[in-house]
TrEMBL record:
InterPro entries: GIY-YIG_endonuc (IPR000305), GIY-YIG_endonuc_sf (IPR035901), UPF0213_domain (IPR050190). The keyword Methyltransferase does not apply. Keywords: Endonuclease, Hydrolase, Nuclease. This is Endonuclease. Residues 2-85 form the GIY-YIG domain. Pfam families: GIY-YIG (PF01541). It comes from Candidatus Tenderia electrophaga. The lineage of its organism: Bacteria, Pseudomonadati, Pseudomonadota, Gammaproteobacteria, Candidatus Tenderiales. One of its GO terms (molecular function) is endonuclease activity. Belongs to the UPF0213 family.
Length: 97
């Protein structure tokens, strides 16, 4: 099943957090409530800035690892690339905390 997403969130300290999920709305709510990822202890999620769809669990995990290895400049280029499907989805991109 290709229903897993790789996503990137811009954080309050300007860093970029990369993760995977099969339910982006639920995951965004979890991040906003500081549930799950320890990364959000001490920083807040600010905005969803990247979504890459069409993955199964395995390929999403592999892609997440690839993205996490990129430097910040490469990640910023990725946000502007055609791989970013954020504009094709009807989701709120701002995170309410």
């Amino acid at each position: 099943m290709a229903d897993w997403l790789v996503y990137i969130i811009l954080c309050s300290d300007g860093t970029l957090y990369t993760g995977i999920t099969n339910n982006i709305e639920r995951r965004m709510q979890q991040h906003a409530a500081q549930q799950g990822a320890k990364y959000f202890r001490g920083r807040a999620p600010k905005q969803l800035v990247y979504i890459e769809n069409g993955h199964d669990r395995s390929s999403a995990s592999q892609r997440e690892a690839e993205i996490k290895k990129l430097n910040r400049g490469a990640k910023l280029c990725l946000l502007k690339s055609d791989l970013n499907r954020l504009h094709t989805l009807t989701l709120p991109t701002q995170i309410s905390v």
